[in-house]
């Protein structure tokens, strides 16, 4: 049950400001012999306390409304930014069909825009993606615009991977993508046991120019996305760029720092909806 007696509760204080003086009036009136003087004094106290209580409560209401207003403005600005970025993304990609839902479990428009920008400016020949989804479509559209390259995307869920493969076919992008079903399994990294995609199922026959990490799910283990770099770094090109989503989470921040130290790279935090890190040489 909600505690209504917590410190600073405006409703409780406002109520007591009326009840206490009223009880005092009753006591004075019925249990004392000095009724006129005490009664008039008590009435003045009641009026004063009521005025103070009303003023105090109005101030609290104004403060609360101000907080609600400021929070609402920030929310509207945030939603507008995501919508604006999504429109920009549609303009860049010019997709044949509507894109699937973004945000929540899927990547947000702003990180997808960062991904598209990296692909179009870096012009990678090989993109590897940990976790398939709308990001796979975005990358494939960008590679199609460049007229070259391929994205290798792996997912632990056969159903989800199959659905993404169908979307790629519907959008006419299957020539630029290879989706691999790679169940999460135990792997060994420098004598320690981790859980990650079964990378033995992944055939990479050219250097990775761009790595986008948005999986596996965080519930897999602590630092669930860390194994991507130790297991794939032997395939990295000299100009490898890494984009890590969900960078506002503590574990992803730790992961980015660990990668930067191991690869002697610079990790830059990007202010997207969920936060992201871009790791580049130099």
Reconstruct the topology from this structure:
Blueprint: H1 10-31, H2 35-93, H3 109-122, E1 126-130, H4 134-146, E2 150-155, H5 158-170, E3 177-181, E4 184-189, E5 192-197, E6 208-213, H6 228-232, E7 236-245, H7 250-263, E8 265-270, E9 276-281
Parallel strand pairs: 1-2, 1-6, 2-3, 6-7
Antiparallel strand pairs: 4-5, 7-9, 8-9
Helix pairs in contact: 1-2, 2-3, 3-4
Task: Give structural notes.
By secondary structure, the protein is an alpha/beta fold. The protein folds into 2 domains: 1-93, no CATH class; 94-281, Vaccinia Virus protein VP39 (Rossmann fold). The chain contains 7 helices and 9 strands; from the N terminus they run H-H-H-E-H-E-H-E-E-E-E-H-E-H-E-E. The chain has helices spanning 10-31, 35-93, 109-122, 134-146, 158-170, 228-232, 250-263; strands at residues 126-130, 150-155, 177-181, 184-189, 192-197, 208-213, 236-245, 265-270, 276-281. The chain has a 7-stranded mixed β-sheet with strand order 3-2-1-6-7-9-8, with helices on both faces. Helix 2 packs parallel to helix 3 (109-122) and helix 3 runs parallel beside helix 4 (134-146). The chain is elongated, with a radius of gyration of 30 Å. The two termini are 56 Å apart. The relative contact order is 0.09.
Helical region count? 7
Helical amount: 40-55%
Number of strands: 9
Q: What's the CATH class label of the largest domain?
A: Alpha Beta
CATH superfamily of the largest domain: Vaccinia Virus protein VP39
Specify Rg, calculated over alpha carbons: 30 Å
- The overall pLDDT, averaged over residues, is 84
Q: What gap, in angstroms, lies between the N and C termini?
A: 56 Å
List the uncertain runs: 1-8
Structural class: alpha/beta
Query: Any idea how many domains?
Result: 2
The amount of beta strand, in percent, is: 15-25%
Topology-level CATH name of the largest domain: Rossmann fold
Shape: elongated
Main beta-sheet strand count, sense and barrel state:
7 strands, mixed
CATH architecture of the largest domain: 3-Layer(aba) Sandwich
Taken in chain order, the helices and strands follow as HHHEHEHEEEEHEHEE
Strands of the biggest beta sheet: in what spatial order? 3-2-1-6-7-9-8
């Amino acid at each position: 049950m909600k505690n209504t007696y917590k410190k600073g509760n405006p409703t409780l204080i406002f109520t007591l400001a009326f009840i206490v003086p009223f009880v005092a009036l009753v006591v004075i009136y019925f249990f004392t012999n000095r009724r006129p003087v005490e009664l008039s004094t008590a009435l003045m106290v009641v009026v004063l306390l009521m005025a103070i209580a009303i003023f105090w409560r109005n101030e609290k209401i104004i403060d609360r409304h101000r907080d609600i207003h400021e929070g609402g403005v920030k929310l509207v600005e945030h939603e507008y930014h995501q919508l604006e970025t999504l429109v920009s993304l549609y303009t860049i990609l010019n997709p044949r069909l509507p894109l699937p839902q973004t945000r929540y479990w899927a990547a947000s428009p702003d990180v997808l825009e960062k991904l598209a920008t990296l692909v179009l400016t870096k012009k990678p020949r090989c993109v590897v993606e940990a976790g398939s989804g709308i990001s796979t479509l975005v990358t494939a559209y960008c590679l199609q615009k460049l007229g070259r390259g391929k994205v290798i995307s792996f997912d632990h869920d056969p159903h989800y991977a199959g659905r993404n493969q169908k979307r790629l076919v519907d959008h006419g992008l299957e020539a630029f993508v290879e989706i691999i079903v790679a169940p999460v399994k135990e792997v060994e990294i420098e004598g320690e046991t981790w859980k990650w995609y079964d990378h033995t199922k992944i055939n990479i026959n050219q250097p990775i120019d761009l790595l986008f990490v948005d999986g596996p799910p965080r519930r897999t283990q602590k630092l669930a996305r860390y194994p991507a770099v130790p297991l794939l770094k032997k395939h990295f090109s000299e100009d490898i760029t890494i984009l890590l989503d969900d960078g506002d989470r503590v574990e992803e921040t730790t992961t980015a720092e660990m990668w930067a130290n191991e690869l002697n790279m610079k990790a830059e935090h990007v202010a997207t909806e969920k936060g992201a890190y871009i790791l580049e040489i130099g």
